[in-house]
């Protein structure tokens, strides 16, 4: 794990950013989208055979398959899943928005009506690992919002079935339909519909680079939550932080993906040296050591800042998906954090706690987008309609002003829609 200065990190980040090129991904993704649009289920079967090595009979997961999944998971897993579900539900219930109305003078009523999106599709990654927690984090806020039809799509295993832990999570959270399709082809199916897959109005959930680019290209046909990049964590640590804890948290992020970023910012060079050594010591203990090693080698960094102010500046420029503040008094630094997807305070609040059990959503903005976007929440599954009611008296008082403004924009149709009403009472 490399130790670098804040200046070196800035230069390295700019260099890496300039090399980003999505053109090759886009060529493949656009071809897949068009194939799914034109050939429907046949394209989904062909791509599933090509990419997953599975010949699909049925694209839709049956109730019998979900029943079978319950017999394949442990009672301990089910108990833990229900505990996590309850905590995530309690947190997200607080996010639900309400419609509101304001009665103003002279018969003016203004307001906002909040309604759920009717049909939503959630993407749950597969392949390298299974993610029942992703089902919880997407399905629970959707159901709290009132989504009436919630579909889920996820790649099948080599045996042609969906991971049982994922299926159990889907039933427990009220998912209405599960499809055995992954990758860009799954996003295209949700966006445009096929013989088996019902078209949705919004797609949420993380995925690999092909999934992310597919979401970008179908945006407009449907809504999306965000375009997620590789996962990332940044730990802000002082010299009193436990290097064992910090190293374990960095590796927890690194094992996600070869392109995951595990960063630590500190003002202590001695702590940085201790941490780098501890990361390498713990690395061999992981089951996914090859993935984590690649991540740490390519994207793992310990950044040594000259001052606390510089450390905070670096953190805010990174705008990390996950930020762990592991200093003596973490609450004191919280007011200085402007950009982060989720903020974990203290040595017993690791990012893994937020992934599974704390309650807040783990679907978070990545790649610096926390500077302008937010975690997934109930609000992402709801939409707002403005409500306007004017009485005749209230209309009369603003009619001439509207005509003047409309004519200034040379929109005579707008002006006439006001004049014709003025004519009724003139």
TrEMBL record:
Its EC number is 1.1.1.23. GO terms for cellular component: cytosol. One of its GO terms (molecular function) is zinc ion binding. SUPFAM superfamilies: ALDH-like. Pathway: Amino-acid biosynthesis; L-histidine biosynthesis; L-histidine from 5-phospho-alpha-D-ribose 1-diphosphate: step 9/9. The keyword Transcription regulation does not apply. Keywords: Amino-acid biosynthesis, Histidine biosynthesis, Metal-binding, NAD, Oxidoreductase, Zinc. It comes from the Bacteria. One of its GO terms (biological process) is L-histidine biosynthetic process. It catalyses: L-histidinol + 2 NAD(+) + H2O = L-histidine + 2 NADH + 3 H(+). The active site is at 321 (proton acceptor), 322 (proton acceptor). Zn(2+) binds at residues 253, 256, 355, 414. Binds 1 zinc ion per subunit. Substrate binds at residues 231, 253, 256, 322, 355, 409, 414. Signal peptide: none annotated. Belongs to the histidinol dehydrogenase family. Catalyzes the sequential NAD-dependent oxidations of L-histidinol to L-histidinaldehyde and then to L-histidine. This is Histidinol dehydrogenase. The lineage of its organism: Bacteria, Bacillati, Bacillota, Bacilli, Bacillales. The gene is hisD.
């Amino acid at each position: 794990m490399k130790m670098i200065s804040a200046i070196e990190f800035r230069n390295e980040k700019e260099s890496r950013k300039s090399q980003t090129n999505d053109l090759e991904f886009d060529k493949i993704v656009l071809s897949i989208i068009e194939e799914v649009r034109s050939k429907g289920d046949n394209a989904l079967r062909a791509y599933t055979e090509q990419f997953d090595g599975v010949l699909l009979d049925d694209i839709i997961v049956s109730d019998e398959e979900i029943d079978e999944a319950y017999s394949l998971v442990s009672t301990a897993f089910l108990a833990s899943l229900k505990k996590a579900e309850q905590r995530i539900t309690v947190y997200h219930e607080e996010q639900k928005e309400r419609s509101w109305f304001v009665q103003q003078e002279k018969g003016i009523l203004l307001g906002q009506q909040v309604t759920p999106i009717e049909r939503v599709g959630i993407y749950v990654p597969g392949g390298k690992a299974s993610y029942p927690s992703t089902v919880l984090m997407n399905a629970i806020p959707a159901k709290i919002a009132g989504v009436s039809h919630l579909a889920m799509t996820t790649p099948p295993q080599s045996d042609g079935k969906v991971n049982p832990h994922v299926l159990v999570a889907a039933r427990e959270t009220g998912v209405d339909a599960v499809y055995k399709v992954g990758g860009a082809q799954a996003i295209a199916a949700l966006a445009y519909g096929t013989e088996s897959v019902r078209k949705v109005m919004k797609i949420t959930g993380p995925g690999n680079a092909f999934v992310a680019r597919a979401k970008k290209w179908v945006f407009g046909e449907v809504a999306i939550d965000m375009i997620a990049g590789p996962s990332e964590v940044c730990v802000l640590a002082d010299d009193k932080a436990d290097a064992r804890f910090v190293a374990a948290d960095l590796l927890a992020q690194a094992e996600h993906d070869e392109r995951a970023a595990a960063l630590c910012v500190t003002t202590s060079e001695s702590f940085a040296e201790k941490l780098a050594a501890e990361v390498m010591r713990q690395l061999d203990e992981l089951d996914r050591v090859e993935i984590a090693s690649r991540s740490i080698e390519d994207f793992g960094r310990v950044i040594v800042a000259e001052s606390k102010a510089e450390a905070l500046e670096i953190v805010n420029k990174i705008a990390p998906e996950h930020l762990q503040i592991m200093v003596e008094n973490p609450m004191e630094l919280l007011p200085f954090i402007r950009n982060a997807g989720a903020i974990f305070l203290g040595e017993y609040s690791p990012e893994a706690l937020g992934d599974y059990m704390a309650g807040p959503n783990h679907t978070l903005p990545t790649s610096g987008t926390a500077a302008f976007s937010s975690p997934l929440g109930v609000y992402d599954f709801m939409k707002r309609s403005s409500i306007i009611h004017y009485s005749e008296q209230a209309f009369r008082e603003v009619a001439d002003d509207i005509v003047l403004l409309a004519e200034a924009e040379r929109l005579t149709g707008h002006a006439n829609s006001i004049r014709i009403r003025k004519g009724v009472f003139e």
